[in-house]
Amino acid sequence: MKKIIFSALLAFAFVFNAQAQENETSKDDYSKWQARFRVISVIPSPGDNLPGAEVNISTTFMPELDFTYFFTKNIAAELILSSTKHEVDVDDALDLGHVWLLPPTLNLQYHFYAGNFKPYIGAGINYTIFYGIDEGAVVGMDYDNTVGFSFQAGLDYNLNDKWFLNLDVKQLLLSTDVEVNTGLGVLPVEVDINPLIVGIGIGRKF
Predict the structure, then answer these.
(1) Residue pLDDT, tens place only, 50-79
(2) Which region is the signal sequence (predicted)?
(3) Which helix (H) or strand (E) holds 140?
(4) Domain residue spans in the chain?
(5) Rounded to whole angstroms, how far apart are CA atoms 176 and 163?
């Protein structure tokens, strides 16, 4: 009987230890890399230093790709890549044509875990390149490339071990100096863009 009890205790200890190791491995197991493809809406909140005039910048919809690397299960860095085209005017009367923005953004994130849900918050920096400029009704437009700041909140929902859905909201604090050549002279303008970026998409872990 003692041998049976002792054998049972050994078996129980072995199973308990194996289960504890499995749980610990599961706790520490995570994918180092993930990528997302989103469709985003970029909604500027424009402002300027022109007295009595208002610069308008159009809302646009574009695809976005991002890559995330996890340093730990909770801490990650995300690089966001996209390019957007915006129409620009003053007081809905003076057409300033359009401009393309290439704003690569690097955010440091903290991820939370709640079952299949993984909310996260982040903050980082942004460098925006202006290109593909159309001058509209003026002779020339020149936008200065600029550095801004990014704030982010989002939610991943796991479909399985590899694929997940994503909802993401970012606020960029972004301003640029613009020189408008009216034909009669060059008018310097400081323009706030400050876009709110709302995206939904799908991601994969690697």
Answers:
(1) 888 899 999 999 999 999 999 999 999 999
(2) 1-20
(3) strand 140-143
(4) 1-30, 31-205
(5) 38
pLDDT tens for residues 14-26? 434 444 444 443 4
Longest Cα pair distance anywhere in the chain, in angstroms?
A: 106
Sign of CA dihedral 132, 133, 136, 140: negative
Contact in structure between 150 and 123 (CB atoms under 8 Å): yes
Which pair of tokens denotes residue 16? 């308990």
What single-letter amino acid sits at 61?
F
pLDDT tens sequence across 92-103: 889 999 999 999
Token representation of residue 133: 């400029």
Q: Class of 31-205 per CATH?
A: mainly beta
Tokens coding 31: 């994918």
CA 82 to chain centre: 10
User: Can you tell me which residue has the tokens 């909604």?
Assistant: 43
CB 76, CB 109: distance < 8 Å = yes
Of 129, 164, 170, 155, the residue nearest 37 (C-alpha): 164
